[in-house]
Amino acid sequence: MPEEIKQELLHKNSVTLSQPNRQLFPELPLHVDHYHELCPLESSAQKSATFGYPTTVYKAINSKNGFLYSLRRIHGFRFPSGKCLGLIDAWKQLQHCNLVSLREVFTTKAFGDNSLIFAYDYFPAAESLMTRHFERNNQANGYADPFNTGDPSVPRPYSHQKNALLRHHANMLPEQLLWTYIIQLSSAIRTIHTAGLSVRSLDPTKILVISRTRPQIRLNCCGIYDIVTFDPTNNPVTINQFHQVSHKLLGFLCSECHYFYSLKTCWRWES
User: Fold this and answer.
1) What is the pTM of this model?
2) What confidence category does residue 266 fall into, taking pLDDT thresholds of 50, 70 and 90?
3) Fewer CB atoms inside 10 A, N or C side of the chain?
């Protein structure tokens, strides 16, 4: 076995066996429905720019089968309507190699409020596409760019502009990797559309890279936006999501994470 694969497997195993520090998370319940040994995968709850509600992610063991699952908690949210149960069943039945499968949805008061829980398959040591390809490029070798203010009108010296251009080209993704992402995203979206559903959360923070030795990605958090914005009177979304894939890949080529969020002011990312 190659050493790189061996180290990745050992790292995933250590992450799987990790336990929460009860002193840092004293409010963490011992049980949430039939899940136990909850361990936060995020430092604190933050309002999601995609869903519009504070969310937290935990890994937990299902006492019914002993498997680990990823629980995404929507804080302070009541179950909208029993009419959306058919929509939940449709997502639960959807299986694809580039999709993080939804296993169940339930409400709980174990956290002291009305929380909505989405249980997904758990992939240890997975990271988002945003984290893998963008956030680490903002600061290299402990050096933070003093001119990186986010305001393009701020004057910068010529040397800074030249160095920034060199770093930009150095961070561009290989064409082979881009095509790998294209094929996987397109395949997953085609399967979802065939089932009469829509992604509606196609965002680099909601796409997981599940391995460091092979470029396999999975669409994550599918179905959440459908539930938190459920309206039985609305017609299904018909915006073509393959256009969104092309815009994201153009963002990869530009190697600018703010490109994705500037797009949101031009298109409704609801498909």
Assistant:
1) 0.77
2) very low
3) N
